[in-house]
Task: structure prediction
Amino acid sequence: MKTLLVGEYRDGKLLNATYELVAFAQKLGADSAMFLVGSDSALPKYAGTLYLADAAKYNDFNPAVHKQLLLDVIAKEQPELIVFSHSSYGWDLAPRVAMALNAAQISEVVDVVDNTFVVPSCNSKLRRDVQSKTAQTVVTLQGGAFGLSGEPSGTANVVKVDTDKAAQVEFGGYEAVEKGGVDLTKAEIIVSAGRGIGKPENLAMIASLAEALGGEYGASRPVVDAEWAEHNRQVGTTGQTVSPKLYVACGISGAIQHLAGMKKSEFIIAINTDKDAPIGEVADVLVVADLKELVPALTAKLQSL
Ligand SMILES: Cc1cc2nc3c(=O)[nH]c(=O)nc-3n(C[C@H](O)[C@H](O)[C@H](O)COP(=O)(O)OP(=O)(O)OC[C@H]3O[C@@H](n4cnc5c(N)ncnc54)[C@H](O)[C@@H]3O)c2cc1C
Result:
């Protein structure tokens, strides 16, 4: 099988998610080439052919132009799989490419088993197994689903690519989200609240435990979506990526999007009523208990020390 990996570059830097595409190709045992609109000064460590277009000329993103650059490489490489990250870049570009190729698109892949792609369904409560019926297939990979076993290595064989395609939109640049309140990435201890806290009033007990431990409190996305906690406290693919010394996940099931943001924590304690909750797969300690009983008791004990 031949894959074309679509790397990502932003503001002068190669994005680490690019290596998740390499891990995916490795998992498939597939040959790969890479396409990147980037820069000579930020090349991936990659042992293969890298088709490189100049971001200074074609911008970090410009849909029609990047699509044309990519289609030219696809025509040359004839990959069976064209692989994007499930990122804002991938969300925008992948369907354009799939449409142009009349190819199937399978989005948000979290695993692949015997040419069957596994994708989340029903807000990640279920998973669907999907197979492509077209000769070429465009896939996007969920962040954190595929990881390299070692450090990235290799020197790319760079092939420069160009296009005359005129841009239809002007790229204005990226605007950083205004950072207010807490910076979870700096916290050494994080106690996070999941939907299992049940109601907004119970966030206070999570915050108290975090304070008793000398840390900060975080939250899973449903807690933030329900406006029980601010977005700058969200951990996961659409929130913060954290790696504290201690992460305590309270009432969090362990969806892949949450794990992607915290699985590099040094020590993980999960408190969950469900002994089979997926968070148990990354937790060093899984306490099967009702957080509403355990968390206040733990906080009281810490405060009494
Ligand atoms: C594109 C996309 C991006 C996403 N980005 C993020 C992200 O950045 N961060 C994120 O967190 N999610 C993200 N999600 C959502 C993610 O898929 C999950 O839906 C979410 O992480 C689930 O949150 P949860 O674990 O708090 O809730 P649930 O999955 O509902 O889990 C609740 C858990 O609490 C346990 N529980 C219930 N009651 C108790 C109790 N009394 N005591 C102890 N345990 C209890 C249950 O057993 C269960 O395991 C994203 C989804 C998509 C599609």
